[in-house]
Write a structure and sequence with these properties.
It contains 6 helices and 6 strands; from the N terminus they run αβαβαβαβαβαβ. It is of the alpha/beta class.
Length: 191
Amino acid sequence: MARSAFQQKVVVITGGCAGIGRALALRFAQAGARLALLDIQCEALEAFRQQLQSKLNVEVLALPCDVADHQQCEQAIGHVIEHFGGIDVLINNAAITHRSAFAETELKVFERIMGVNYFGALHCTRPALDSLVQRKGQIIVMSSLSSFAPLLYRSAYNASKHALHGLFQTLRLELQDSGVNVMLVSPGYTA
């Protein structure tokens, strides 16, 4: 990642203190970005913020946020814009999964997974959109290969990732003349 490309850019990462989100935060910090990390894991989030600031001397705003709650997302994104003056990159990364047969999966599991994986991305993108358009920024959505090659016993997860493609491919078309780049990333299994 070229250091100059992201120097002083404001990068928001949901699910930012573990897994792919954590790895992305480290790479963007090394590239000189200013970070806003949103995560539901409050203690881990604060510990990671302290680590990034002390070891990489990067400006980090750590905001506890359940992305399934639109009000929490609006408040968090509003706080990011107020603190940094805008958003250059929004990475919708927060996600959860399950392992159960469709017939044995309770409705509340489907609702929670769609709430985090699909609505979480929608809830963060809407309040960030004006700032992203003003800055000709980038929206990155972490999807999955399971969105088009479904994993067995992951019906809710597969459906949530498939829904992301419908939403953000449409948004990409709507924003094609705005200067905003919309990218869907579909990794396979990750450690």
